[in-house]
TrEMBL record:
This is CBS domain-containing protein. Pfam families: CBS. The keyword Oxidoreductase does not apply. Residues 20-79, 88-143 form the CBS domain.
Amino acid sequence: MIFKLTYFYEPIMKKVSNILTRKGSSVIAIDGSTTVLDALKLMADKNIGSVVITEDGVYAGLLTERDYARKVILHGKSSLETQVREIMSTGFPRILPDNSIETCMHIMSESNLRYLPVFKEDRLCGIISISDVVTETILSHEETIEQLKSYIQS
């Protein structure tokens, strides 16, 4: 008996570049000397949970809502007087546009991170959040379901 293969499904490995294409790769950045209050106002205005911090125009770290809660509020600091460079998070793993979504999910879960900077060569080209990763995973699963439905109906 010979079977003719009429359909072959191979899952597509989604990459960070898919997220950046979907949501855009623009990055909101501020100088390290900016006050925490001004950074928070910007984050609220742009409806974002993190902002890139630069020193002399070069990526230095990220300021997140978590940084504010843990390093300003809990320590009784003034958001009017504290500069973002004093509380920003540094040392994030650097990911590439070609990294898989699964890799990012693993890094974020293992390191308890909500944001990851994306670099192409040595240039920051985007920021992805855990929400971006979850959304892309859901979209990928929906795509798989549609492909399987199409296969079943053919």
